[in-house]
Amino acid sequence: MLLLAIVRASTAVAATPSRLAKRAILADVLRLAEPEEIDLVATYLAGSLRQRRTGVGWASLAALPDPAPQPTLEVRDVDARLERIAAESGAGSSARRDAALTDLLEAATSAEQQYLRALVLGDVRQGASASLVQDALAAAFEVPLALVRRAAMLAGSTASAARAVAAGGQAALEAIGLTVGVPVEPMLAAAAPNPSDAVAKSGLPAFVDAKLDGIRVQVHRWPGDGTTGAAGADEVRLFTRSLDDITDRLPEVVAQARALPESTFVLDGEVIALRPDGRPVPFQLIAARTATTDAEAAAGLPVALFAFDVLHVAGRDLLDEPLHVRAEALAALVPPELTVPREVVTTAERAAEVFARAVGVGWEGVVVKRRDAPYAAGRRDSAWVKVKPRHTFDLAVVGAEWGYGRRTGWLSNLHLAARDGAGNLVMLGKTFKGLTDAMLTWQTAELLARESRRTASTVFVDPPLVAEIAIDGVQVSTRYPGGVALRFARVLRYRDDKTVADVDLLADVAALSPVIDGS
Ligand SMILES: Nc1ncnc2c1ncn2[C@@H]1O[C@H](COP(=O)(O)OP(=O)(O)OP(=O)(O)O)[C@@H](O)[C@H]1O
Protein backbone atom coordinates (compact mmCIF):
# COMPACT_ATOMS: atom_id res chain seq x y z
CA MET A 1 0.00 0.00 0.00
CA LEU A 2 1.20 3.49 -0.79
CA LEU A 3 1.88 5.80 2.14
CA LEU A 4 -0.32 8.26 0.28
CA ALA A 5 -3.41 6.17 1.14
CA ILE A 6 -2.66 6.66 4.83
CA VAL A 7 -1.93 10.36 4.42
CA ARG A 8 -5.24 10.86 2.61
CA ALA A 9 -7.14 8.90 5.26
CA SER A 10 -5.44 10.86 8.03
CA THR A 11 -6.39 14.17 6.41
CA ALA A 12 -9.97 13.04 5.89
CA VAL A 13 -10.24 11.76 9.48
CA ALA A 14 -8.92 15.06 10.83
CA ALA A 15 -11.50 16.95 8.78
CA THR A 16 -14.56 15.24 10.25
CA PRO A 17 -15.73 15.39 13.87
CA SER A 18 -18.00 12.33 13.39
CA ARG A 19 -16.66 9.12 14.93
CA LEU A 20 -18.76 7.06 12.53
CA ALA A 21 -17.35 8.89 9.51
CA LYS A 22 -13.81 8.50 10.86
CA ARG A 23 -14.41 4.79 11.38
CA ALA A 24 -15.68 4.37 7.82
CA ILE A 25 -12.62 6.13 6.37
CA LEU A 26 -10.22 4.00 8.40
CA ALA A 27 -12.10 0.76 7.64
CA ASP A 28 -11.80 1.45 3.90
CA VAL A 29 -8.03 1.72 4.16
CA LEU A 30 -7.73 -1.36 6.40
CA ARG A 31 -9.75 -3.42 3.92
CA LEU A 32 -7.30 -2.53 1.15
CA ALA A 33 -4.14 -3.40 3.13
CA GLU A 34 -2.33 -6.68 2.40
CA PRO A 35 -2.30 -9.12 5.36
CA GLU A 36 1.51 -8.74 5.61
CA GLU A 37 1.33 -4.99 6.04
CA ILE A 38 -1.91 -4.49 7.93
CA ASP A 39 -0.10 -4.26 11.27
CA LEU A 40 1.89 -1.28 9.96
CA VAL A 41 -1.16 0.29 8.36
CA ALA A 42 -3.08 0.01 11.65
CA THR A 43 -0.13 1.46 13.56
CA TYR A 44 0.27 4.44 11.21
CA LEU A 45 -3.48 5.07 11.11
CA ALA A 46 -3.43 5.40 14.90
CA GLY A 47 -0.71 8.04 14.50
CA SER A 48 2.15 5.97 15.86
CA LEU A 49 5.26 4.16 14.67
CA ARG A 50 6.34 0.57 15.13
CA GLN A 51 9.72 1.82 16.36
CA ARG A 52 9.47 3.05 19.95
CA ARG A 53 12.28 5.52 19.34
CA THR A 54 13.89 6.62 16.09
CA GLY A 55 16.52 8.94 17.59
CA VAL A 56 15.23 11.70 15.26
CA GLY A 57 14.44 15.01 16.97
CA TRP A 58 12.86 18.32 16.06
CA ALA A 59 16.11 19.80 14.81
CA SER A 60 16.56 17.20 12.05
CA LEU A 61 13.04 17.87 10.82
CA ALA A 62 13.05 21.66 11.02
CA ALA A 63 13.84 22.09 7.32
CA LEU A 64 12.42 19.65 4.77
CA PRO A 65 14.20 18.84 1.47
CA ASP A 66 12.54 19.36 -1.92
CA PRO A 67 9.60 16.95 -2.16
CA ALA A 68 9.23 14.17 -4.73
CA PRO A 69 6.86 15.05 -7.58
CA GLN A 70 4.98 11.71 -7.47
CA PRO A 71 3.89 9.49 -4.56
CA THR A 72 5.86 6.23 -4.75
CA LEU A 73 6.64 5.42 -1.11
CA GLU A 74 5.24 2.10 0.06
CA VAL A 75 4.23 1.67 3.71
CA ARG A 76 6.60 -1.27 4.10
CA ASP A 77 9.47 0.72 2.59
CA VAL A 78 8.85 3.55 5.08
CA ASP A 79 8.97 1.08 7.96
CA ALA A 80 12.17 -0.56 6.71
CA ARG A 81 13.87 2.83 6.35
CA LEU A 82 12.72 3.95 9.81
CA GLU A 83 14.00 0.68 11.24
CA ARG A 84 17.46 1.39 9.82
CA ILE A 85 17.32 4.95 11.14
CA ALA A 86 16.34 3.72 14.61
CA ALA A 87 19.09 1.10 14.62
CA GLU A 88 21.90 3.63 14.00
CA SER A 89 24.25 3.85 16.94
CA GLY A 90 27.85 4.61 17.78
CA ALA A 91 30.28 7.14 16.31
CA GLY A 92 28.90 9.15 13.41
CA SER A 93 25.42 7.72 13.90
CA SER A 94 23.67 11.05 14.02
CA ALA A 95 25.09 12.10 10.62
CA ARG A 96 24.13 8.72 9.13
CA ARG A 97 20.67 8.99 10.67
CA ASP A 98 20.18 12.47 9.23
CA ALA A 99 21.35 11.30 5.78
CA ALA A 100 18.92 8.35 5.82
CA LEU A 101 16.15 10.66 6.98
CA THR A 102 16.84 13.09 4.15
CA ASP A 103 16.74 10.16 1.67
CA LEU A 104 13.35 9.15 3.04
CA LEU A 105 11.98 12.69 2.91
CA GLU A 106 13.28 13.24 -0.63
CA ALA A 107 11.28 10.21 -1.71
CA ALA A 108 8.10 11.73 -0.21
CA THR A 109 5.68 14.23 -1.72
CA SER A 110 5.01 17.40 0.19
CA ALA A 111 1.90 16.00 1.92
CA GLU A 112 3.75 12.80 2.76
CA GLN A 113 6.66 14.81 4.18
CA GLN A 114 4.33 16.70 6.52
CA TYR A 115 2.74 13.44 7.62
CA LEU A 116 6.06 11.68 8.16
CA ARG A 117 7.33 14.57 10.21
CA ALA A 118 4.26 14.45 12.46
CA LEU A 119 4.49 10.65 12.71
CA VAL A 120 8.15 10.66 13.70
CA LEU A 121 7.60 13.44 16.24
CA GLY A 122 4.49 11.74 17.65
CA ASP A 123 2.41 14.74 16.66
CA VAL A 124 -0.25 13.43 14.22
CA ARG A 125 -3.35 15.49 15.03
CA GLN A 126 -6.10 13.62 13.25
CA GLY A 127 -8.28 12.45 16.09
CA ALA A 128 -7.70 8.74 15.35
CA SER A 129 -6.57 6.79 18.37
CA ALA A 130 -5.78 3.09 18.73
CA SER A 131 -9.32 2.67 20.06
CA LEU A 132 -10.83 4.15 16.88
CA VAL A 133 -8.62 1.94 14.71
CA GLN A 134 -9.89 -1.08 16.68
CA ASP A 135 -13.41 0.07 15.93
CA ALA A 136 -12.52 0.35 12.24
CA LEU A 137 -10.94 -3.12 12.24
CA ALA A 138 -14.17 -4.58 13.61
CA ALA A 139 -16.12 -2.82 10.86
CA ALA A 140 -13.67 -3.76 8.09
CA PHE A 141 -13.59 -7.46 8.98
CA GLU A 142 -17.15 -7.69 10.32
CA VAL A 143 -16.17 -9.05 13.72
CA PRO A 144 -17.38 -7.93 17.18
CA LEU A 145 -15.54 -4.90 18.49
CA ALA A 146 -15.21 -6.49 21.95
CA LEU A 147 -13.23 -9.31 20.38
CA VAL A 148 -10.83 -6.91 18.64
CA ARG A 149 -10.31 -4.95 21.87
CA ARG A 150 -9.69 -8.11 23.85
CA ALA A 151 -7.20 -9.42 21.28
CA ALA A 152 -5.38 -6.07 21.23
CA MET A 153 -4.98 -5.96 24.99
CA LEU A 154 -3.94 -9.60 25.31
CA ALA A 155 -1.50 -9.51 22.42
CA GLY A 156 -0.26 -6.12 23.66
CA SER A 157 -1.14 -4.02 20.59
CA THR A 158 -3.76 -3.09 18.02
CA ALA A 159 -1.25 -4.06 15.34
CA SER A 160 -1.20 -7.67 16.58
CA ALA A 161 -5.00 -7.80 16.58
CA ALA A 162 -4.98 -6.44 13.01
CA ARG A 163 -2.53 -9.10 11.89
CA ALA A 164 -4.65 -11.85 13.44
CA VAL A 165 -7.98 -10.72 12.07
CA ALA A 166 -6.56 -10.19 8.57
CA ALA A 167 -4.99 -13.64 8.59
CA GLY A 168 -7.72 -15.69 10.23
CA GLY A 169 -10.81 -13.60 10.91
CA GLN A 170 -12.87 -14.07 14.06
CA ALA A 171 -11.43 -17.50 14.86
CA ALA A 172 -7.90 -16.10 14.95
CA LEU A 173 -9.00 -13.32 17.30
CA GLU A 174 -10.73 -15.81 19.58
CA ALA A 175 -7.61 -17.95 19.70
CA ILE A 176 -5.57 -15.12 21.24
CA GLY A 177 -5.24 -15.65 24.98
CA LEU A 178 -2.96 -14.37 27.69
CA THR A 179 0.54 -15.69 27.17
CA VAL A 180 2.77 -15.53 30.20
CA GLY A 181 5.84 -13.61 29.01
CA VAL A 182 3.85 -11.37 26.63
CA PRO A 183 2.74 -8.13 28.30
CA VAL A 184 -0.93 -7.21 28.45
CA GLU A 185 -2.10 -3.62 28.14
CA PRO A 186 -2.59 -2.39 31.71
CA MET A 187 -5.99 -1.47 33.09
CA LEU A 188 -6.31 2.27 33.67
CA ALA A 189 -8.27 4.39 36.11
CA ALA A 190 -10.87 7.11 35.68
CA ALA A 191 -10.57 10.09 38.02
CA ALA A 192 -12.89 11.65 40.59
CA PRO A 193 -12.40 14.83 42.62
CA ASN A 194 -13.21 13.20 45.98
CA PRO A 195 -13.86 9.79 47.57
CA SER A 196 -17.66 10.08 47.63
CA ASP A 197 -17.82 10.79 43.88
CA ALA A 198 -15.46 7.84 43.40
CA VAL A 199 -17.65 5.37 45.29
CA ALA A 200 -20.69 6.74 43.47
CA LYS A 201 -18.99 5.50 40.30
CA SER A 202 -17.65 2.23 41.65
CA GLY A 203 -20.61 1.23 43.81
CA LEU A 204 -20.42 -0.15 47.36
CA PRO A 205 -18.87 -2.21 48.82
CA ALA A 206 -15.69 -1.09 47.11
CA PHE A 207 -12.00 -1.83 47.43
CA VAL A 208 -10.02 1.26 48.38
CA ASP A 209 -6.33 0.88 47.54
CA ALA A 210 -3.57 3.28 48.46
CA LYS A 211 -2.34 4.96 45.25
CA LEU A 212 1.42 4.59 45.23
CA ASP A 213 3.34 7.12 43.15
CA GLY A 214 5.98 5.04 41.40
CA ILE A 215 6.37 3.09 38.18
CA ARG A 216 3.67 0.71 36.96
CA VAL A 217 5.21 -2.70 36.41
CA GLN A 218 3.77 -5.98 35.14
CA VAL A 219 5.70 -9.00 36.38
CA HIS A 220 5.70 -12.25 34.38
CA ARG A 221 7.30 -15.42 35.70
CA TRP A 222 7.26 -18.84 34.06
CA PRO A 223 9.36 -22.02 34.21
CA GLY A 224 12.70 -21.47 32.52
CA ASP A 225 13.88 -23.56 29.61
CA GLY A 226 17.49 -22.87 30.50
CA THR A 227 18.05 -20.49 27.58
CA THR A 228 18.60 -17.47 29.79
CA GLY A 229 19.56 -16.94 33.40
CA ALA A 230 20.89 -19.62 35.68
CA ALA A 231 20.29 -23.19 34.53
CA GLY A 232 16.84 -24.31 35.46
CA ALA A 233 15.93 -20.90 36.92
CA ASP A 234 12.52 -19.53 36.08
CA GLU A 235 12.20 -16.72 33.56
CA VAL A 236 11.11 -13.36 34.92
CA ARG A 237 10.24 -10.36 32.77
CA LEU A 238 9.19 -6.90 33.90
CA PHE A 239 7.22 -4.56 31.65
CA THR A 240 6.30 -0.89 32.03
CA ARG A 241 2.94 0.69 31.45
CA SER A 242 3.92 1.23 27.78
CA LEU A 243 4.97 -2.46 27.64
CA ASP A 244 8.71 -1.79 27.47
CA ASP A 245 10.85 -4.57 28.92
CA ILE A 246 12.75 -3.16 31.94
CA THR A 247 13.79 -6.47 33.48
CA ASP A 248 17.48 -5.47 33.51
CA ARG A 249 16.81 -2.28 35.42
CA LEU A 250 15.10 -3.75 38.46
CA PRO A 251 17.06 -6.77 39.75
CA GLU A 252 15.49 -6.45 43.21
CA VAL A 253 12.02 -6.87 41.72
CA VAL A 254 13.20 -9.89 39.71
CA ALA A 255 14.51 -11.42 42.93
CA GLN A 256 11.25 -10.60 44.67
CA ALA A 257 9.29 -12.38 41.90
CA ARG A 258 11.55 -15.44 42.11
CA ALA A 259 10.97 -15.66 45.85
CA LEU A 260 7.19 -16.11 45.47
CA PRO A 261 5.78 -19.60 45.95
CA GLU A 262 4.48 -20.18 42.38
CA SER A 263 6.51 -20.53 39.22
CA THR A 264 3.91 -19.23 36.77
CA PHE A 265 2.09 -15.95 37.28
CA VAL A 266 1.44 -12.44 36.01
CA LEU A 267 1.26 -9.67 38.59
CA ASP A 268 0.39 -6.00 38.22
CA GLY A 269 1.72 -3.44 40.65
CA GLU A 270 3.66 -0.30 41.37
CA VAL A 271 7.41 -0.15 41.98
CA ILE A 272 8.40 2.35 44.66
CA ALA A 273 11.08 2.88 47.30
CA LEU A 274 10.50 3.63 50.95
CA ARG A 275 12.54 5.86 53.21
CA PRO A 276 13.74 4.43 56.51
CA ASP A 277 10.75 6.06 58.24
CA GLY A 278 8.41 4.13 55.92
CA ARG A 279 7.29 7.13 53.86
CA PRO A 280 7.55 6.84 50.08
CA VAL A 281 10.48 8.34 48.20
CA PRO A 282 9.30 11.00 45.66
CA PHE A 283 8.34 9.81 42.20
CA GLN A 284 11.17 11.68 40.47
CA LEU A 285 13.82 9.62 42.27
CA ILE A 286 12.06 6.35 41.42
CA ALA A 287 11.80 7.40 37.79
CA ALA A 288 15.52 8.23 37.67
CA ARG A 289 16.36 4.93 39.35
CA THR A 290 14.19 2.97 36.91
CA ALA A 291 15.81 4.72 33.96
CA THR A 292 19.30 3.42 34.76
CA THR A 293 21.04 0.05 34.64
CA ASP A 294 23.96 1.54 36.57
CA ALA A 295 24.43 -0.89 39.46
CA GLU A 296 25.91 1.75 41.76
CA ALA A 297 23.02 4.17 41.28
CA ALA A 298 20.64 1.25 41.71
CA ALA A 299 22.22 0.18 44.98
CA GLY A 300 21.66 3.69 46.36
CA LEU A 301 17.89 3.39 46.07
CA PRO A 302 16.54 -0.13 46.47
CA VAL A 303 13.01 -0.44 45.13
CA ALA A 304 10.26 -3.01 45.58
CA LEU A 305 7.11 -4.06 43.82
CA PHE A 306 3.85 -3.49 45.67
CA ALA A 307 1.35 -5.70 43.88
CA PHE A 308 -2.30 -4.78 43.46
CA ASP A 309 -3.56 -7.33 40.93
CA VAL A 310 -2.92 -10.78 39.53
CA LEU A 311 -3.85 -11.77 35.97
CA HIS A 312 -2.69 -15.37 35.88
CA VAL A 313 -1.55 -18.01 38.37
CA ALA A 314 -0.39 -21.55 37.66
CA GLY A 315 -2.19 -22.08 34.35
CA ARG A 316 -5.34 -20.16 35.36
CA ASP A 317 -6.23 -16.90 33.59
CA LEU A 318 -7.86 -14.49 36.02
CA LEU A 319 -8.59 -11.53 33.73
CA ASP A 320 -12.29 -12.22 33.55
CA GLU A 321 -12.67 -13.01 37.24
CA PRO A 322 -14.17 -10.32 39.49
CA LEU A 323 -11.73 -8.28 41.53
CA HIS A 324 -12.62 -9.99 44.81
CA VAL A 325 -11.60 -13.36 43.33
CA ARG A 326 -8.36 -11.91 41.97
CA ALA A 327 -7.74 -10.32 45.38
CA GLU A 328 -7.95 -13.74 47.03
CA ALA A 329 -5.53 -15.19 44.49
CA LEU A 330 -3.20 -12.26 45.12
CA ALA A 331 -3.30 -12.76 48.87
CA ALA A 332 -2.44 -16.44 48.39
CA LEU A 333 0.56 -15.59 46.21
CA VAL A 334 2.09 -12.38 47.58
CA PRO A 335 2.80 -11.64 51.26
CA PRO A 336 0.93 -8.65 52.70
CA GLU A 337 4.08 -6.53 53.04
CA LEU A 338 4.49 -6.63 49.25
CA THR A 339 0.91 -5.74 48.34
CA VAL A 340 -0.60 -2.24 48.29
CA PRO A 341 -2.48 -1.19 51.42
CA ARG A 342 -6.15 -2.05 50.74
CA GLU A 343 -9.43 -1.87 52.61
CA VAL A 344 -12.91 -3.00 51.62
CA VAL A 345 -15.36 -0.21 52.51
CA THR A 346 -19.14 -0.26 52.70
CA THR A 347 -19.83 3.47 53.13
CA ALA A 348 -18.71 6.70 51.48
CA GLU A 349 -17.70 8.04 54.92
CA ARG A 350 -15.31 5.16 55.42
CA ALA A 351 -13.87 5.70 51.93
CA ALA A 352 -13.21 9.34 52.90
CA GLU A 353 -11.44 8.22 56.09
CA VAL A 354 -9.25 5.75 54.21
CA PHE A 355 -8.38 8.47 51.69
CA ALA A 356 -7.43 10.95 54.45
CA ARG A 357 -5.27 8.34 56.16
CA ALA A 358 -3.59 7.32 52.88
CA VAL A 359 -2.67 10.93 52.09
CA GLY A 360 -1.56 11.44 55.69
CA VAL A 361 1.03 8.65 55.51
CA GLY A 362 2.42 10.04 52.25
CA TRP A 363 0.60 8.06 49.55
CA GLU A 364 -0.49 9.92 46.44
CA GLY A 365 -4.19 9.24 47.05
CA VAL A 366 -6.41 6.19 46.60
CA VAL A 367 -7.78 4.07 43.77
CA VAL A 368 -11.38 3.04 44.43
CA LYS A 369 -12.16 -0.27 42.70
CA ARG A 370 -15.42 -1.97 41.86
CA ARG A 371 -15.53 -5.25 43.74
CA ASP A 372 -16.99 -7.38 40.95
CA ALA A 373 -15.21 -5.85 37.95
CA PRO A 374 -12.99 -7.95 35.67
CA TYR A 375 -9.52 -6.74 34.69
CA ALA A 376 -10.41 -4.39 31.80
CA ALA A 377 -7.00 -4.36 30.17
CA GLY A 378 -6.20 -1.28 28.15
CA ARG A 379 -9.37 0.46 29.30
CA ARG A 380 -10.00 3.53 31.40
CA ASP A 381 -13.46 3.13 32.89
CA SER A 382 -15.11 3.58 36.23
CA ALA A 383 -14.21 0.09 37.51
CA TRP A 384 -11.12 1.88 38.89
CA VAL A 385 -11.40 5.49 40.01
CA LYS A 386 -8.40 7.41 41.29
CA VAL A 387 -8.69 10.23 43.79
CA LYS A 388 -5.84 12.56 44.60
CA PRO A 389 -5.91 15.54 46.96
CA ARG A 390 -6.31 18.66 44.93
CA HIS A 391 -3.89 21.34 45.96
CA THR A 392 -4.80 24.84 44.92
CA PHE A 393 -2.74 28.01 45.12
CA ASP A 394 -3.22 31.60 44.09
CA LEU A 395 -0.31 32.28 41.76
CA ALA A 396 0.84 35.27 39.76
CA VAL A 397 0.61 35.15 35.98
CA VAL A 398 3.77 37.05 35.05
CA GLY A 399 3.73 36.40 31.31
CA ALA A 400 2.15 34.30 28.60
CA GLU A 401 3.18 32.72 25.32
CA TRP A 402 1.23 33.12 22.10
CA GLY A 403 -0.88 30.09 21.28
CA TYR A 404 -0.71 28.13 18.08
CA GLY A 405 -3.09 25.89 16.12
CA ARG A 406 -6.61 26.57 17.36
CA ARG A 407 -5.24 29.07 19.87
CA THR A 408 -3.46 31.26 17.34
CA GLY A 409 -4.06 34.92 18.21
CA TRP A 410 -4.62 34.22 21.90
CA LEU A 411 -2.07 34.44 24.69
CA SER A 412 -2.19 30.88 25.96
CA ASN A 413 0.68 29.26 27.89
CA LEU A 414 0.86 31.09 31.22
CA HIS A 415 4.05 31.69 33.22
CA LEU A 416 3.22 31.11 36.88
CA ALA A 417 5.04 32.47 39.91
CA ALA A 418 4.82 32.42 43.71
CA ARG A 419 6.19 35.02 46.18
CA ASP A 420 9.42 34.49 48.07
CA GLY A 421 10.05 35.84 51.57
CA ALA A 422 11.32 39.14 50.16
CA GLY A 423 8.21 39.65 48.05
CA ASN A 424 9.87 38.76 44.72
CA LEU A 425 7.93 36.67 42.22
CA VAL A 426 9.63 33.34 41.51
CA MET A 427 8.57 31.34 38.47
CA LEU A 428 7.44 27.75 39.15
CA GLY A 429 6.05 26.52 35.87
CA LYS A 430 3.72 27.08 32.96
CA THR A 431 0.27 25.91 32.00
CA PHE A 432 -2.21 26.24 29.16
CA LYS A 433 -4.66 23.78 30.75
CA GLY A 434 -8.12 24.54 32.09
CA LEU A 435 -8.66 27.62 29.92
CA THR A 436 -12.00 28.08 28.16
CA ASP A 437 -12.29 30.21 25.02
CA ALA A 438 -13.88 32.94 27.13
CA MET A 439 -10.93 32.87 29.54
CA LEU A 440 -8.45 32.95 26.65
CA THR A 441 -10.15 36.01 25.20
CA TRP A 442 -10.32 37.74 28.58
CA GLN A 443 -6.73 36.98 29.55
CA THR A 444 -5.33 38.04 26.17
CA ALA A 445 -6.89 41.48 26.53
CA GLU A 446 -5.92 41.81 30.20
CA LEU A 447 -2.34 40.68 29.67
CA LEU A 448 -1.79 42.94 26.67
CA ALA A 449 -3.06 45.87 28.72
CA ARG A 450 -0.38 45.06 31.33
CA GLU A 451 2.46 44.35 28.87
CA SER A 452 5.86 45.41 30.20
CA ARG A 453 8.06 43.83 27.52
CA ARG A 454 7.91 41.05 24.97
CA THR A 455 9.98 38.54 23.03
CA ALA A 456 8.99 36.81 19.81
CA SER A 457 6.98 34.19 21.69
CA THR A 458 6.10 35.75 25.03
CA VAL A 459 4.42 38.81 26.47
CA PHE A 460 5.59 39.71 30.01
CA VAL A 461 3.31 41.70 32.26
CA ASP A 462 3.49 43.99 35.25
CA PRO A 463 1.50 43.98 37.45
CA PRO A 464 0.66 40.30 37.13
CA LEU A 465 -2.79 38.74 37.08
CA VAL A 466 -3.68 36.35 39.91
CA ALA A 467 -5.11 32.94 39.07
CA GLU A 468 -6.23 30.02 41.19
CA ILE A 469 -4.19 27.07 40.04
CA ALA A 470 -4.70 23.39 40.85
CA ILE A 471 -1.64 21.15 40.93
CA ASP A 472 -1.02 17.50 41.69
CA GLY A 473 2.20 18.27 43.53
CA VAL A 474 5.64 19.77 43.08
CA GLN A 475 9.01 18.43 42.09
CA VAL A 476 12.61 19.46 42.40
CA SER A 477 13.63 21.61 39.46
CA THR A 478 16.92 22.75 38.03
CA ARG A 479 15.11 24.85 35.45
CA TYR A 480 13.21 27.22 37.71
CA PRO A 481 14.95 29.66 40.04
CA GLY A 482 13.17 28.55 43.23
CA GLY A 483 14.30 24.96 42.69
CA VAL A 484 10.65 23.93 42.57
CA ALA A 485 8.39 23.05 39.62
CA LEU A 486 4.64 22.51 39.58
CA ARG A 487 3.27 19.10 38.54
CA PHE A 488 0.19 19.07 36.29
CA ALA A 489 -0.81 22.69 36.83
CA ARG A 490 -4.17 23.82 35.50
CA VAL A 491 -6.14 27.05 35.81
CA LEU A 492 -9.30 26.86 37.91
CA ARG A 493 -10.28 30.53 37.60
CA TYR A 494 -8.92 34.03 37.59
CA ARG A 495 -8.94 35.91 40.88
CA ASP A 496 -9.32 39.49 39.72
CA ASP A 497 -10.40 40.26 43.26
CA LYS A 498 -6.81 39.57 44.37
CA THR A 499 -3.51 41.37 43.89
CA VAL A 500 0.10 40.35 43.95
CA ALA A 501 0.11 40.73 47.75
CA ASP A 502 -2.33 37.79 47.92
CA VAL A 503 -0.13 35.47 45.87
CA ASP A 504 0.87 32.36 47.81
CA LEU A 505 4.35 31.92 49.22
CA LEU A 506 6.95 29.80 47.50
CA ALA A 507 7.65 28.05 50.80
CA ASP A 508 3.99 26.97 51.10
CA VAL A 509 3.98 25.52 47.60
CA ALA A 510 7.36 23.83 48.13
CA ALA A 511 6.10 22.27 51.37
CA LEU A 512 4.07 19.81 49.29
CA SER A 513 7.31 17.94 48.66
CA PRO A 514 9.00 16.09 51.51
CA VAL A 515 12.30 16.55 49.70
CA ILE A 516 12.09 20.22 48.87
CA ASP A 517 11.07 21.32 52.33
CA GLY A 518 14.18 19.56 53.61
CA SER A 519 12.57 17.08 55.94
N1 LIG B 1 -3.36 0.54 44.07
C1 LIG B 1 -3.26 0.92 42.80
N2 LIG B 1 -4.09 0.41 41.87
C2 LIG B 1 -4.03 0.78 40.58
N3 LIG B 1 -3.13 1.68 40.11
C3 LIG B 1 -2.27 2.22 40.99
C4 LIG B 1 -2.30 1.86 42.37
N4 LIG B 1 -1.31 2.55 42.99
C5 LIG B 1 -0.72 3.29 42.06
N5 LIG B 1 -1.27 3.11 40.86
C6 LIG B 1 -0.87 3.83 39.64
O1 LIG B 1 -1.93 4.68 39.28
C7 LIG B 1 -2.19 4.61 37.92
C8 LIG B 1 -3.69 4.70 37.72
O2 LIG B 1 -4.02 5.90 37.12
P1 LIG B 1 -4.11 5.99 35.53
O3 LIG B 1 -4.54 4.71 34.98
O4 LIG B 1 -4.90 7.18 35.23
O5 LIG B 1 -2.59 6.17 35.13
P2 LIG B 1 -1.80 7.53 34.92
O6 LIG B 1 -2.39 8.25 33.76
O7 LIG B 1 -0.37 7.15 34.88
O8 LIG B 1 -2.17 8.34 36.21
P3 LIG B 1 -1.33 9.02 37.32
O9 LIG B 1 -0.42 10.00 36.65
O10 LIG B 1 -2.41 9.63 38.14
O11 LIG B 1 -0.59 7.92 38.05
C9 LIG B 1 -1.69 3.27 37.45
O12 LIG B 1 -1.20 3.33 36.13
C10 LIG B 1 -0.61 2.93 38.46
O13 LIG B 1 0.67 3.27 37.93
Describe this structure in words.
Strands 11, 12, 13, 14, 15 and 18 form a 6-stranded antiparallel sheet that branches. Strands 1-10-9-2-8 form a 5-stranded mixed sheet, covered by helices on one side. A 5-stranded antiparallel sheet has the order 4-3-5-6-7, sandwiched between helices. Helices cover 36% and strands 23% of the residues. It has 17 helices and 18 strands. The model has no long low-confidence stretch (mean pLDDT 91). By secondary structure, it is an alpha+beta fold. It has helices at residues 3-15, 19-32, 38-45, 75-87, 93-106, 110-120, 130-141, 145-155, 158-174, 195-202, 251-258, 283-290, 295-300, 323-333, 348-360, 437-449, 506-510; strands spanning 188-191, 206-211, 215-222, 235-239, 265-272, 304-313, 316-317, 342-345, 365-370, 380-387, 391-402, 411-419, 425-431, 451-454, 458-471, 473-476, 484-487, 490-494. β11 (391-402) and β12 form a beta hairpin. It folds into 3 domains: 3-174, Orthogonal Bundle (DNA ligase i, domain 1), CATH 1.10.3260; 188-386, D-amino Acid Aminotransferase, Chain A, domain 1 (2-Layer Sandwich); 391-510, OB fold (Dihydrolipoamide Acetyltransferase, E2P) (Beta Barrel). The site of adenosine-5'-triphosphate has 12 residues, from β1 and β2. Its EC number is 6.5.1.1.
Primary descriptors:
3 domains; 17 helices; alpha+beta; D-amino Acid Aminotransferase, Chain A, domain 1; DNA ligase i, domain 1; five-stranded mixed β-sheet; OB fold (Dihydrolipoamide Acetyltransferase, E2P); 519 residues; binds adenosine-5'-triphosphate; six-stranded antiparallel β-sheet
